[in-house]
Design goal:
Number of helices: 8
Pfam family, one: DUF2213
Organism: Candidatus Methanogaster sp. ANME-2c ERB4
Radius of gyration: 22 Å
Mean pLDDT: 76
Protein name: DUF2213 domain-containing protein
Number of strands: 12
Low-confidence stretches: 157-177, 286-295
Distance between the termini: 37 Å
Order of helices and strands: EEEEEHEEEHEEEEHHHHHH
Strand content: 25-35%
């Protein structure tokens, strides 16, 4: 069935207002509006950023990195790019707000001195090409399933002070999923590298090499057949990795069943496993102090409360 959605990696920018800065132990805290419910112009394409999607995105935005300009890959791929974090994201009054905690001395100094005055979020979304209106304003598409990757402090952005975006943000340069297959693969390879998934990265690199070779020979039927075969192999790899994590999690804790865990995607399963292992590590410091002889109860009690 055809769909009018496409996955996109994008950036939006807003103005930075440094008047509310506070500083403690060399770390500056800057209240910021990082995104707004509004229609934005992406090189002629009018795109709606809905309030409901921003409100949902806020729940997953705590502690995303703050960077100086957008990373070359469009997403954060190296710890050295992280110069601070976004804290306490909250959506209210049509604005997604938070506190930028900047620990890098050079970036903090440029913000305080007013040398950098705009912010830009880097995020993923599904671009739904459904047209509509908000009041008298028309839009050509809707950003859905918004997932923030980072907040960049930049020289210039898309959403102005007049629009209500301040360093109290949304960029002129957009990084959509490219229209050509090789460009899409490059984006996917960067995402796999960011997730430290070497198996997926190697598979995508192999697909890219095949596409490049096939493009030069013009054998499109062979490319499609090989692509479908590799896609099936990729599905098997992801499924096997999920099964292994679910097995490990069901061994380590009793709070969530295998059926509950099977509903999660691979990325969230990895997060669950990291959290359980962290809880088990913390448990070692108080094992034997009335937390049960089986070794699970402390982990289960803490784990069961997550997400309530």
């Amino acid at each position: 069935m055809p769909t009018n959605k496409k996955f996109a990696l994008a950036t939006d920018s807003m103005q930075l207002d440094a008047s509310g800065i506070t500083e403690l132990d060399g770390i500056i805290s800057v209240p910021a509006t990082i995104a707004k419910h509004m229609i934005q112009d992406y090189d002629g394409l009018k795109v709606l950023k809905p309030a409901t999607e921003l409100e949902a995105a806020a729940k997953y935005a705590d502690r995303i990195p703050v960077t100086r300009d957008h990373p070359d890959a469009g997403i954060v791929t190296d710890r050295g790019q992280v110069l601070g974090f976004l804290k306490n994201p909250l959506y209210e009054n049509d604005e997604l707000k938070g506190i930028l905690e900047i620990s890098n001395k050079d970036l903090a100094a440029d913000v305080k001195d007013g040398k950098l005055k705009e912010l830009s979020i880097g995020f993923f979304c599904n671009l739904d090409n459904t047209q509509g209106t908000v009041g008298d304003a028309k839009y050509d598409a809707i950003q859905k399933d918004i997932f923030l990757n980072h907040v960049a402090i930049v020289d210039a952005g898309r959403c102005s002070i007049e629009d209500g975006c301040k360093f109290h943000i949304d960029s002129k340069n957009r990084i959509d999923s490219p229209p050509d297959p090789i460009g899409k693969l490059d984006t996917a390879i960067g995402m796999a590298e960011n997730d430290y998934n070497s198996t997926l990265k190697d598979l995508l690199t192999e697909i890219k090499e095949m596409v490049v070779a096939g493009s030069s020979t013009g054998d499109s039927a062979t490319i499609i057949a090989e692509r479908d075969a590799l896609k099936k192999e990729l599905g098997k790899i992801v499924h096997a990795e999920k099964d292994a994590i679910i097995t490990e999690l069901t061994t380590l804790q009793d709070a969530k069943t295998a059926d509950d865990l099977a509903k999660l995607d691979l990325a969230n399963l990895k997060k669950e496993l990291d959290m359980v292992n962290e809880l088990r590590t913390d448990r070692l410091s108080f094992d034997g102090r009335g937390h049960g002889s089986g070794g699970k109860s402390a982990v289960d009690d803490a784990y069961a409360k997550v997400g309530r």
